[in-house]
Structure formats: C-alpha cells, structure tokens
Predict the structure of Guanylate kinase.
Amino acid sequence: MAQIPETHDDTLHRRGLMFILSSPSGAGKTTISRKLLAHDERMGMSVSVTTRQPRPGEIDGKDYIFKTQEQFDQMVEDGHFMEWAHVFGHSYGTPKSQIKAGLKEGRDFLFDIDWQGTQQLYQKSETDVVRVFLLPPSLDELRRRLTARGTDSAEVIAGRMARAQAEISHWDGYDYVVVNDDIDTCFDKVVQILAAERLSRARQTGLIGFVRELMRPEV
Ligand SMILES: Nc1ncnc2c1ncn2[C@@H]1O[C@H](COP(=O)(O)OP(=O)(O)OP(=O)(O)O)[C@@H](O)[C@H]1O
Ligand SMILES: Nc1nc2c(ncn2[C@@H]2O[C@H](COP(=O)(O)O)[C@@H](O)[C@H]2O)c(=O)[nH]1
C-alpha cells in the first residue's frame, strides 16, 4: 500500500515560499505580520536593512537592521541584497543571507516590502513568491491609523498619505488583495492564503513518489 508521505500536511520535502505583504504605509502590514509570526512557527521574518531612524520601540536586528547610508551603499556594492529600493526618502533592502538556504530546506519567509521590492523578487524567483496586497478600508481610516500609531511627525504622515494612491495603483501586481478593515478578519484571510499556497501542487515535490505509487496498475 502507498505510504502517505509526511508532505500530506505540507511540512516536509517542500520548497519554502516567499510570502510578501505590501500595502500603502499604515494599512497594517506590520500588525498582520506580527500576528502571523506569533501564530505560525514555521514562518520566519525577512528582516530588512534600512537607513531610516528607528521608531520608538523598534529593536535593531529584530524589526530592522539599521545602517547609515554609507554602509547601505557598500552593502549594495557587495551584492548583499536580494532586492533594494528607495522608499519615502530612505533606502531599504532585503539581505540574501539565510533566505536562499532556508527556502531549499523548506522554510517559509515573510517579507514586509513595497511594490518595487515585490517586483524585483518576483522577477528573480517567480515560483517561490506569493504576493499579497493589503488595502485600507478608506483613505480617512488610513490617515487615522498613521496618526494614531503615534510614531511619525505630521510631515512624515503627510508624505506617506501623499504617496498612498500611487502605492495603491500597483494593486494589480499582486496575486491576492485583502481589505484590512477588521484585523481578525483580515488575518484569517491571510492565514487561508498561506495555507492554500503551501498545498500548491508545484511546491509539494515530496508528493510525486506517493502519487506514482497510487497510480501503479493494481495486480
Ligand atoms: N484593522 C485595523 N483596524 C484598526 N487599526 C489598525 C488595523 N490594522 C492596523 N491598525 C493600526 O494601524 C497602525 C498602522 O499599522 P501598521 O504599523 O501595521 O501599518 P504598516 O502597513 O506596517 O505601516 P508602514 O508601512 O508605515 O510600516 C497601527 O497603529 C496599527 O495598530
Ligand atoms: N523594497 C523594500 N521595501 C521595504 C523593505 N523593508 C521595508 N520596506 C517598505 O518600506 C515602506 C516603509 O516602511 P517603514 O517601516 O519605514 O514604515 C513600507 O512600504 C515597507 O513595506 C525592503 O527591504 N525592501
């Protein structure tokens, strides 16, 4: 009888996936990412390098790796990044280290990056990438969230609001779009997307032998 491989619950012999969450600033990527990481121990966070100043409470090496512009430029030159972009007047980049080896081992990674980075990762690793875009329920609510977060000056908030519609215009470059109105509802949808993507046929390479066994002519 064919042995059901351990891949039936999608934990083994599967290439990892790159799960990207993008949105206009303030729509809730960080909030949903933190919930997902707490909920799913198989998911690792891709910690970006940035030249922006840490917000109160942000921890170097956990939320971001904070570098000077000079250090960042050197890292670009050294080929340190899978992708990088200028966002809101600062540089942001995804380090290569860990991710490539992790994917081969079947580990999944969560990316909180903008549409420019998403495009770059998709061009490099189309089959590994799952692109999810979060929308705010309205622009008024987006402004309210940015203000209520209390981490940015009025000037920074105005700059991010001014870019929001340009960011939203890239929504059609994503595989999934979820409106983040109620946090728990949005989170449940993101969890469902992740579960479905983990079961995608292309990723479950460990199932091939099992399926062949099932298809062997009966004697
Ligand atoms: N569904 C929601 N309802 C109400 N408030 C929310 C919701 N989702 C997130 N928030 C709040 O909105 C603020 C912005 O959320 P968050 O920091 O997660 O956004 P972000 O998309 O990561 O922003 P940025 O791109 O600037 O990092 C936070 O104070 C968060 O608690
Ligand atoms: N292309 C990339 N974009 C990134 C990366 N890390 C974060 N970001 C995006 O930048 C903005 C602003 O982030 P904030 O934390 O300063 O509010 C947001 O859209 C992030 O998704 C990255 O490595 N590459």
User: Anything to note?
Assistant: The chain is about 40% helix and 20% strand.
